[in-house]
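Predict the 3D structure for this chain.
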Amino acid sequence: MSAKDCGNHDHKRRKLYRRLFSAFLAFVIIVLLVILIIWLVLRPTKPRFVLQDASVYQFNLSGLNLLSTTVQISLVSRNPNDRIGVYYDRLVVYASYRNQQVTLGTVLPSTYQGHNEVIVWSPFLNGASVPVSPYLGLAIGQDQNVGYYILNIKVDGRVRWKVGTWISGHYHLNVNCPAYLRLDGHGGGGNGVMVKLQVPVGCSVDV
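Done. Predicted structure below.
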């Protein structure tokens, strides 16, 4: 084979590679444009959660640093999307005090939330004789003397998005709602009923 033939062969090969690369680049650009158009049309927004109400009927610490807690909450979720539905496949809600979980996880029923739909859950959260660290016991005593507590209502779960007939895979959902509580008749050893302050609390949501 002559050197001229080899040169032509290499030139054709480079030309083929350039065409393949151009075709691949065009495909990537088209895919990105489609994704951008879909995003602009759908404007996906994560669900919004609000802690509407919280009543603590028990928040008692024994001498062995064992905490017993009973809380009822009203948690509101709104889907702000006009074209996207949300599947809540598994939601577990619990109460946390100073970054320590103080109730067992309560499983909320799986449900579907349509466009701009609002869902309200009103579960009880319970923790019987939950061991807590000594510093937490001191903090509880200080808060009881003041008459105010801050509990964090947390939700851990999985969601899926629905657009038309298409349903996405699972995404992890984390919700954190700070509940500012006032102890009625405080000074009685923590046996009074605490009620949430009148203003509903917005929650932080991570998906």
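Residues 3-42 form the longest helix (40 residues).
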